[in-house]
Amino acid sequence: MSLINEASLIHEIDIVWLEDIDKLDYVRQSLDRLPTRRGKPAYHRDGRMVGYAVLGPSAKGAAASGTFHRRVFWLAPHDRDTLPGGEYSTGAPLESVDPRTLAPRQPGHKTERSEGGPPSPAMVALGLTLPKA
């Protein structure tokens, strides 16, 4: 499940990846207020931006600020791609999804791969499964 819903993505027309997502188990996503509909946004978090959404011409800026809500995809310095044995060797951050499940206007979701492996014994006991990818 994603923290971002489809209604907030209706104006997306493309996702631009800055890295090969086939090498990433998960990406973090956030809905940022940005000054433009298109183009690579400025990045002000720890870690690195790995992609961003592009909005179509029908997207309207906020009345008060003129900014646009756009998705930004990123990884923190302590994420699994950089520290495979670290905090997220299994499991994944709340705001993360498998990048292979993302598309314009689609929030994406977690998969077995993004969570770091096979289901936990608790999930198995409850009969819960995640998609493979």
Automatic annotation (TrEMBL):
InterPro entries for the chain: DUF6009
Chain intervals for the UniProt region annotation (Disordered): 81-133
Protein name: Transcription factor
Top-level division of the source organism's lineage: Bacteria
